[in-house]
Amino acid sequence: MKYIYALLITLASVGMFAQVANDTIKTDSIRTMETEMDELVIEKKKKAIERRADRVIFDFESQAHLNSGSLMDGLKKLPGLIISDVAGMMYQGKALQVYMDGRPLNIYSNELTAYMEGLPANSIEKVEIITHPGAEFPATSGGAIINIISSKNSKQYLSATYSNGYSYTKYEDSRHRFNNSLLVSSGGKGYSWQLNGGQSYNEGYQTSRFAADDLLLTQNYSDRVNRFYYLRSGVKIELGKDRLLLNYDFNTNKNTSYVAATGTDITSGDPFFTDDKSMTDRFYHDGMITYQKRFDNTLKKLDFRLNFNNNKSDFGMNSRLNDANVLENNSDQNFVQFKTDYTQEFNVLDKTKVNAGVLADHLDFTAESFGTTNLEYTRSTYAAYAEGQVTYKKFDFILGGRLESYDIKGNTDTDDLIPFNLTRFFPNATIQYNLMPQVHINTSFNKKISLPDTGSLNPNNTNYQNPNVGFFGNPNLDPAIFNNYEVELSAFEYFTIGYSYTDAKDIIVNRIIQNDDGAASVSVNIPNSSIRNFNIGLPIPYMLFTKGLDAVLKMDFNPDEINFIYLYAGNQLHEIPGIDTKPVWNFNVSSQIILPKKVKLMANFNTTTTGGNYYYYTVKRPAYQSLDLTFSRKFMSDNLSVSLYVNDLLNTNKQEFGAVGTNLIYNSSFDSRRVGLSLSYKIPTRNKQAQESNILNNGQQQQPSQDVIK
Question: What is the pTM of this model?
Answer without folding.
Answer: 0.87
